[in-house]
Structures are given as C-alpha cells and as structure tokens.
Amino acid sequence: MPSRPAADDAVRSPIRALHQETRAVHVAAAELVGCRPLSVPLYQTSSFAFDDPAALAEAMSGPDGAFVYTRRGNPTVRALENTVAALEGGAAALATASGMGAISSVLLSLLRSGDHVIAQRCLYGGTFALFGELAERFGIEVSHVGGQDPDEVRRALRPRSRVLYLETIANPMTQVCDLPALIDVGRAHGLISVVDNSFASPLLCRPLEHGADVVVHSTTKYLGGHSDVLGGVAVFATEEQHLATWSRAVELGASADPFAAWLTIRGLQTLPLRMRAHCANAEFLAHRLAAHPAVRAVHWPGLSDHPDHLVAKRLLAGYGGVLAFDLAGGRGAGQMFISSVELASLAVSLGGVETLVLHPASTSHRELDEVSLRAAGIGPGTVRVAVGLEHRDDLWRDFEQALARCA
C-alpha cells in the first residue's frame, strides 16, 4: 500500500491528490455567474474564512465590515435587518433571538445604575417584569404614565431620567399612545425614546417618523406572521445608537439565528396582505362583540367609543388585529370563554394566521399584582383576541357558541 503524502504536500497538491477525508470536509459553494437567487439564501454557518489576515483583523472592528462570526453578523440576518430598517425608515437595525432580546439589549445599552425610566403604564408583561428586575438589581427606577398627557411625562421627570419607553398599541387593552406629544417632551429634556411597535407593525405606524429614537419588534408576531419563528429586531434612528446596542447584544449573545431570520424574511414578504386581513377581521369581530349581551366592553382602537380613537385615527394606517373585551360574568366567564372556543386556539403570542385567545390576568400579565392590573385596565373577565385570517363568519360562529356558554 502506498504511503500517505505529508500534510504540506497534500495541501499543495491538486484536488485529485487529496484524500477522501479531506474531500468530504472541503465542500465548495457554487459561484453564481450572470444570475441571482430570487429567495434570500440561508447562510447557516457559524464562521467565515479569510485569505488575508489583515482583512480578518479589519472585519473584527465593527458590524459593517466583512462577516466573521454569526454572533457578530450574518448575510441572512443582515438581509432581515436591512429590510426592517427600510420599512421603519431607520438608519440601521439589529436582529435578535427574541423580542425580549431586542428590548433587553436596547435598555442595557442605554441605562446605568441609578438611572430613571418613564414608561407607559400598560405594557407587555415581559417588559414590565424586566423593569422590575432592573430596579431590583441595578437601582434603575421606573415611573409609569398614561399614553396621552404630555404634562404627566413632565411631572415624572427627574435629574437622572434617561429613557421614555412606550408602546404604539398597548398590550392587551389596545391603548394608543400619543407618540408625537410624549416624544416631544422627552426629546426636550434629553430622553431617548424607545417604542415597541410589535402590535402595529411598520404597515400601520412608523414611530421614527414621530420622533422616536429606537423602535423594537417581536418578529415572532406580525413580521414573521406564521407562528413558526422566535425573534426580535431593534431599529435605530442613528448609526451611533445602533453601534452601541450592537456591541451590547454581541456581548449578551442575543444575536439572531440565521434560520430564524430566513423564516422571518419569508413572512415579511406577505406582511401588507396579512395586515389588511387581520385588521378587517378584527373590525368585524369588534362590532359583533360590542352588540352581544354577554360582553360589557370591547377594546379596539377602531371603535368610535374607544378612549384613544381620535389619536389612533391620526397616527395609524389601520387599527390592528388585536382586541380585548370584558365579559359581564367576570373571571369565571373569562375562563369559560377561553375554554369553550373550538376554532380559535388558547395560546399566548399573536400575529400568526390563526386566531388566538387568552386570559391576560392569568397568563401574559401574571407578573402584575391586582393594583397594577387595574391601573393597566385589565379586568378579571378580560379576554384578549389576536385575530387571525380565517373567514369572519366561521370565527363569529365559534365566538357566539362560546359566549352562549358564558351566559
């Protein structure tokens, strides 16, 4: 049997001289000449190889150079970031492993021990819990305000106020924040405004156009749109803020997975069509629920009696696919309704093609005590509905039979 060539000889030899083990390892990607893929390719790789040591060293300097390591950047992830940045009208974006990854990366890049945050009173439960953790561990104080009165923000200001945190459409009671009025106050006093736009999507509202500095999304929701991906993204008005948050996200390991980014890109391509259908179905259900005797109140910004209807009409291009309603029978009725639906599913999250229901007081907002629940407007019989894309008559038949059981 002939002896194996030395390692240096094998490396220098033409491909026909390589051993089978080496050939199996070194699979070359096909080069595209005169064509391009219609779909964004999935770069499912952890690292990228270089021919030039100086080029590798240069690539390590920041997020805008050549790709080095997927925790720092990836072509598929970058395609998602660039698309969402364009949709929101931002300078740059940062994709993360989850919506809370985006929120945490942004807040931890902005805040220091002893800082003060002014936050909207009705917030996603995970965000509310994060503020509690920041207060306990780092002494970051939080004052909560409503979403309409600029003077309330002025009264909450302190010498170490640093961040104004808002939601375009609040979870779960669909309050619509007067973004321009509140952000103007924050900017006048040096606050950085962060807006969670997950419920609206860039199709209904673009907070950067109203003066926000950072916009965050759970891409798990409407941007992905198919209940099959976990992700988040933060969009920045300036490159400087993007770089600061990118550095913190890389340190935290909050970076997006390429396959999750690829799935989100696929969902984004139908976002305009889906959002129109979500909003139309929500409008139909909101009016039907408002007329039902078992329902005490319906919370959807498109209804004329919604407290924030005029603000929503001024700021939003549509009223959203999420609504909440209060059942006259209280907590027992709420539990009965979510247990009785047959077409809709009892599940957390939102933004997928299927309709989901949940009882906020015992699920998404379980971190809030009774006082905080009342302050947020969440009652014991409140049910949140993330309206899907089913035929509206089928949805109403399901809701009607569930409501009958509540009675």
From TrEMBL:
Annotated catalysed reactions: L-methionine + H2O = methanethiol + 2-oxobutanoate + NH4(+); L-homocysteine + H2O = 2-oxobutanoate + hydrogen sulfide + NH4(+) + H(+)
InterPro entries according to UniProt: Cys/Met-Metab_PyrdxlP-dep_enz, Cys_met_metab_PP, PyrdxlP-dep_Trfase, PyrdxlP-dep_Trfase_major, PyrdxlP-dep_Trfase_small
Pfam families: Cys_Met_Meta_PP (PF01053)
One GO CC term on file: cytoplasm
Group of enzyme by EC: lyase
Positions bearing N6-(pyridoxal phosphate)lysine: K221
Cofactor: pyridoxal 5'-phosphate
Family: Belongs to the trans-sulfuration enzymes family.
Name the UniProt record assigns to this protein: homocysteine desulfhydrase
Species, as recorded: Solihabitans fulvus
